[in-house]
Fold this sequence. Notes:
Blueprint: E1 5-8, E2 12-16, H1 18-25, H2 29-36, H3 40-48, H4 56-66, H5 70-73, E3 74-78
Antiparallel strand pairs: 1-2, 2-3
Amino acid sequence: MKNISRIDMENGFYLFKLRNVLSNKNISINKIMRETNTDFKVIKRLMTGELLKIDIIVLARICNYLNCNIEDLIEYKQTKAISN
Length: 84
């Protein structure tokens, strides 16, 4: 899981897999920045999970460029059920 960042939350965790996808497709950060017109900091945050919110327009642009689904880039795993 070297190319996947895990961010733990109260009831689960997120896996940020953009770095893994880029590595598998042999695409550099500079190339995806240029091709998707996305700022370096935004790409890095999507790789590391160090973000507070996600811009769905940017996410869609990256998914379109990489020909993938959102869950290929970001995944949430629930570890314990939330009771009502």
